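Quick question, first post here. What does this chain look like in 3D?
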Amino acid sequence: MSKLAPSFFLLRPVRDEYGRRLGHVISFAFGLRGRVEEVIVQRDSGGIIRFPVNRLKLEGTDIVLLSPLKEAAERLRDEITSVRHKERALIKLSKDKAPEDVYECLRKGFEDAFNQLKDEAQGIIKGLDEQISLCNLQAKELSLALASLEIEHNAEGIDEASYRKALEAVSEELKRVSSERAELELVKKRLLNALSEELKVVEGAIVQEKPILVYVKEALDFGGEERR
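> Answer (accepted):
Ran it through. C-alpha coordinates below.
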Protein backbone atom coordinates (compact mmCIF):
# COMPACT_ATOMS: atom_id res chain seq x y z
CA MET A 1 0.00 0.00 0.00
CA SER A 2 3.03 2.29 0.28
CA LYS A 3 2.87 2.91 -3.49
CA LEU A 4 -0.59 4.46 -3.25
CA ALA A 5 -1.03 8.22 -3.44
CA PRO A 6 -1.33 9.99 -0.05
CA SER A 7 -4.80 11.26 -0.97
CA PHE A 8 -5.95 7.65 -1.18
CA PHE A 9 -5.59 7.21 2.60
CA LEU A 10 -7.02 10.50 3.79
CA LEU A 11 -10.22 10.26 5.89
CA ARG A 12 -10.67 6.54 5.20
CA PRO A 13 -11.99 4.52 8.16
CA VAL A 14 -9.62 2.05 9.80
CA ARG A 15 -10.79 -1.14 11.51
CA ASP A 16 -9.26 -4.33 12.80
CA GLU A 17 -9.64 -7.76 11.18
CA TYR A 18 -12.81 -8.47 13.13
CA GLY A 19 -14.70 -5.33 12.17
CA ARG A 20 -13.98 -3.11 15.17
CA ARG A 21 -13.67 0.47 14.02
CA LEU A 22 -10.47 2.11 15.28
CA GLY A 23 -10.79 5.59 13.79
CA HIS A 24 -10.02 7.32 10.49
CA VAL A 25 -6.90 8.53 8.71
CA ILE A 26 -6.17 12.22 9.22
CA SER A 27 -2.62 12.35 7.83
CA PHE A 28 0.44 10.30 6.87
CA ALA A 29 4.23 10.08 7.25
CA PHE A 30 6.62 9.78 4.32
CA GLY A 31 9.79 7.70 3.99
CA LEU A 32 13.04 8.81 2.39
CA ARG A 33 11.78 7.87 -1.08
CA GLY A 34 8.67 9.97 -0.75
CA ARG A 35 6.31 7.05 -0.24
CA VAL A 36 3.77 6.82 2.56
CA GLU A 37 5.25 4.64 5.32
CA GLU A 38 2.76 5.34 8.11
CA VAL A 39 -0.77 6.59 8.44
CA ILE A 40 -1.84 8.81 11.33
CA VAL A 41 -5.22 7.73 12.68
CA GLN A 42 -7.53 9.71 14.91
CA ARG A 43 -9.09 7.25 17.32
CA ASP A 44 -12.85 7.23 17.69
CA SER A 45 -12.19 7.28 21.45
CA GLY A 46 -9.90 10.30 21.13
CA GLY A 47 -6.20 10.79 20.52
CA ILE A 48 -4.07 9.72 17.59
CA ILE A 49 -1.99 6.66 16.75
CA ARG A 50 0.37 5.71 13.90
CA PHE A 51 0.24 2.49 11.92
CA PRO A 52 2.87 1.34 9.38
CA VAL A 53 1.35 0.73 5.94
CA ASN A 54 2.84 -2.78 5.80
CA ARG A 55 0.33 -3.72 8.50
CA LEU A 56 -2.61 -2.44 6.45
CA LYS A 57 -4.72 -3.88 3.68
CA LEU A 58 -7.66 -2.54 1.74
CA GLU A 59 -11.10 -4.14 2.02
CA GLY A 60 -13.76 -2.24 0.16
CA THR A 61 -13.54 1.38 1.28
CA ASP A 62 -12.02 0.45 4.65
CA ILE A 63 -8.40 0.13 5.65
CA VAL A 64 -7.88 -3.01 7.77
CA LEU A 65 -5.18 -3.27 10.42
CA LEU A 66 -3.51 -6.70 10.45
CA SER A 67 -2.36 -8.47 13.61
CA PRO A 68 1.46 -8.49 13.89
CA LEU A 69 1.32 -11.54 16.17
CA LYS A 70 -0.56 -13.64 13.63
CA GLU A 71 1.72 -12.53 10.82
CA ALA A 72 4.84 -13.29 12.87
CA ALA A 73 3.51 -16.74 13.84
CA GLU A 74 2.73 -17.66 10.22
CA ARG A 75 6.13 -16.40 9.07
CA LEU A 76 7.90 -18.45 11.74
CA ARG A 77 5.89 -21.55 10.86
CA ASP A 78 6.95 -21.22 7.22
CA GLU A 79 10.59 -20.70 8.19
CA ILE A 80 10.57 -23.70 10.54
CA THR A 81 9.05 -25.86 7.80
CA SER A 82 11.71 -24.64 5.36
CA VAL A 83 14.52 -25.56 7.76
CA ARG A 84 13.00 -29.00 8.28
CA HIS A 85 12.82 -29.57 4.51
CA LYS A 86 16.50 -28.66 4.18
CA GLU A 87 17.34 -31.06 7.02
CA ARG A 88 15.58 -33.86 5.17
CA ALA A 89 17.55 -33.07 2.03
CA LEU A 90 20.78 -33.14 4.04
CA ILE A 91 19.92 -36.50 5.59
CA LYS A 92 19.23 -37.93 2.13
CA LEU A 93 22.64 -36.64 1.03
CA SER A 94 24.24 -38.64 3.88
CA LYS A 95 27.81 -38.53 5.06
CA ASP A 96 28.89 -40.95 2.32
CA LYS A 97 28.14 -38.35 -0.35
CA ALA A 98 29.75 -35.37 1.36
CA PRO A 99 32.91 -34.86 3.43
CA GLU A 100 32.17 -35.35 7.10
CA ASP A 101 33.25 -31.85 8.05
CA VAL A 102 30.97 -30.34 5.40
CA TYR A 103 28.07 -32.56 6.48
CA GLU A 104 28.52 -31.64 10.17
CA CYS A 105 28.86 -27.94 9.34
CA LEU A 106 25.58 -27.99 7.42
CA ARG A 107 23.84 -30.08 10.06
CA LYS A 108 24.93 -27.71 12.83
CA GLY A 109 23.82 -24.73 10.74
CA PHE A 110 20.32 -26.15 10.41
CA GLU A 111 20.24 -27.08 14.09
CA ASP A 112 21.28 -23.57 15.13
CA ALA A 113 18.72 -22.04 12.76
CA PHE A 114 15.97 -24.21 14.23
CA ASN A 115 16.92 -23.37 17.81
CA GLN A 116 16.90 -19.66 16.98
CA LEU A 117 13.46 -19.97 15.40
CA LYS A 118 12.28 -22.00 18.39
CA ASP A 119 13.38 -19.28 20.81
CA GLU A 120 11.62 -16.65 18.71
CA ALA A 121 8.50 -18.81 18.54
CA GLN A 122 8.30 -19.04 22.34
CA GLY A 123 7.92 -15.26 22.53
CA ILE A 124 5.20 -15.32 19.87
CA ILE A 125 3.37 -18.14 21.66
CA LYS A 126 3.48 -16.16 24.91
CA GLY A 127 1.96 -13.18 23.11
CA LEU A 128 -0.75 -15.39 21.57
CA ASP A 129 -1.56 -16.82 25.01
CA GLU A 130 -1.93 -13.30 26.40
CA GLN A 131 -4.27 -12.35 23.55
CA ILE A 132 -6.31 -15.52 24.01
CA SER A 133 -6.60 -14.80 27.76
CA LEU A 134 -7.76 -11.28 26.97
CA CYS A 135 -10.39 -12.68 24.59
CA ASN A 136 -11.59 -15.07 27.31
CA LEU A 137 -11.89 -12.19 29.75
CA GLN A 138 -13.79 -10.07 27.23
CA ALA A 139 -16.10 -12.99 26.41
CA LYS A 140 -16.90 -13.44 30.09
CA GLU A 141 -17.61 -9.74 30.54
CA LEU A 142 -19.85 -9.68 27.47
CA SER A 143 -21.72 -12.77 28.67
CA LEU A 144 -22.33 -11.04 31.99
CA ALA A 145 -23.52 -7.99 30.07
CA LEU A 146 -25.99 -10.16 28.14
CA ALA A 147 -27.27 -11.73 31.34
CA SER A 148 -27.72 -8.30 32.92
CA LEU A 149 -29.68 -7.11 29.88
CA GLU A 150 -31.95 -10.15 30.06
CA ILE A 151 -32.58 -9.67 33.77
CA GLU A 152 -33.44 -6.00 33.39
CA HIS A 153 -35.59 -6.70 30.33
CA ASN A 154 -37.52 -9.43 32.10
CA ALA A 155 -38.03 -7.10 35.04
CA GLU A 156 -39.47 -4.61 32.52
CA GLY A 157 -36.82 -2.06 33.38
CA ILE A 158 -35.83 -1.54 29.72
CA ASP A 159 -38.15 -0.70 26.84
CA GLU A 160 -38.22 -3.18 23.96
CA ALA A 161 -36.50 -0.95 21.39
CA SER A 162 -33.57 -0.13 23.66
CA TYR A 163 -33.26 -3.77 24.71
CA ARG A 164 -33.10 -4.98 21.10
CA LYS A 165 -30.52 -2.38 20.14
CA ALA A 166 -28.30 -3.15 23.14
CA LEU A 167 -28.70 -6.89 22.64
CA GLU A 168 -27.57 -6.60 19.01
CA ALA A 169 -24.51 -4.53 19.97
CA VAL A 170 -23.36 -6.90 22.71
CA SER A 171 -24.03 -9.98 20.57
CA GLU A 172 -22.02 -8.58 17.66
CA GLU A 173 -19.06 -7.82 19.90
CA LEU A 174 -19.26 -11.29 21.43
CA LYS A 175 -19.19 -12.76 17.93
CA ARG A 176 -16.06 -10.73 17.09
CA VAL A 177 -14.30 -11.83 20.28
CA SER A 178 -15.17 -15.48 19.64
CA SER A 179 -13.88 -15.24 16.06
CA GLU A 180 -10.64 -13.60 17.18
CA ARG A 181 -10.07 -16.20 19.88
CA ALA A 182 -10.68 -19.09 17.47
CA GLU A 183 -8.20 -17.67 14.94
CA LEU A 184 -5.54 -17.07 17.59
CA GLU A 185 -5.93 -20.62 18.90
CA LEU A 186 -5.59 -22.03 15.38
CA VAL A 187 -2.46 -19.96 14.69
CA LYS A 188 -0.94 -21.12 17.98
CA LYS A 189 -1.75 -24.78 17.29
CA ARG A 190 -0.19 -24.64 13.82
CA LEU A 191 2.99 -23.08 15.18
CA LEU A 192 3.25 -25.62 18.02
CA ASN A 193 2.75 -28.50 15.60
CA ALA A 194 5.54 -27.17 13.36
CA LEU A 195 7.84 -27.01 16.40
CA SER A 196 6.91 -30.52 17.55
CA GLU A 197 8.03 -32.26 14.35
CA GLU A 198 11.20 -34.28 14.92
CA LEU A 199 13.63 -35.88 12.46
CA LYS A 200 15.82 -38.89 13.23
CA VAL A 201 18.27 -40.98 11.24
CA VAL A 202 18.15 -44.77 11.54
CA GLU A 203 20.77 -46.63 9.47
CA GLY A 204 20.98 -43.79 6.99
CA ALA A 205 17.21 -43.55 6.44
CA ILE A 206 14.95 -40.68 7.40
CA VAL A 207 12.47 -41.35 10.14
CA GLN A 208 10.02 -38.52 10.49
CA GLU A 209 8.15 -38.78 13.72
CA LYS A 210 4.53 -37.82 13.50
CA PRO A 211 3.98 -34.33 14.87
CA ILE A 212 2.49 -34.19 18.31
CA LEU A 213 -0.84 -32.60 17.58
CA VAL A 214 -1.51 -29.88 20.07
CA TYR A 215 -5.20 -29.37 20.62
CA VAL A 216 -6.04 -26.12 22.27
CA LYS A 217 -8.68 -26.42 24.95
CA GLU A 218 -12.05 -25.52 23.53
CA ALA A 219 -13.22 -22.03 24.26
CA LEU A 220 -15.48 -21.57 27.22
CA ASP A 221 -19.11 -21.33 26.32
CA PHE A 222 -19.46 -17.67 27.05
CA GLY A 223 -21.36 -17.32 23.82
CA GLY A 224 -18.38 -17.67 22.62
CA GLU A 225 -3.78 1.00 22.19
CA GLU A 226 -5.72 -3.16 21.83
CA ARG A 227 -2.82 -5.52 22.05
CA ARG A 228 -1.52 -5.93 18.57
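The chain has four helices and eight strands.
Confidence is low (pLDDT under 50) at residues 200-228.
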